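note to self — DONT lose this again. spent like an hour looking for the file last time. sequence + predicted structure for the chain T wanted, 185 res
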Amino acid sequence: MQRFQQVYFINSLYHSTYVHTIMTQQEQFKLAMSQFATGVCVMTFEHPETKATEGVTISAFSSLSVEPLKILFCLGHWGLAKTHFDQIERFTVNILSSRQKDLAYQFAGRSRDHLADKIEKIDGTPSLKGTLASVVCQKGSHYTEGDHDIIIGEVQSIQLNNADNSLQPLLYYRSDIIDNYRYES
């Protein structure tokens, strides 16, 4: 594993501090990527055997194509959702609002308790209520790259939350979930 030398120089009005650290390439990469703020989503689907709502929190999500409508997201190889996701055909990407931090943490873990009042079906696919938007997709192509799969979703339907203009996005920045960002239009 290659190690990189990183030097931090911290200035204030009253003193200067010189900090010297040694980081692995992976640590430096993670630190660099954490500087990019991104939205937080939860990908939901119906468990192929139990029919319960299953899912995973994702931050690597993007639109891919307008003609035809396609999205993509990245799914790590190590999670429980990966095992079940290989067996399903449809899923929803739910773009979370700042009021849904608890759901981001819940789907990042293993507990799916107390979800019944937070789930609705859109075109027969489990989706989360109260999101900024939900995008129901047919599973398309997937590509394995490193320790993740890149999943392509063929958009089947879109639900926008136009009822509540006060909703703000839930963000992921510097390895932390940010729920107090405010966009003023």
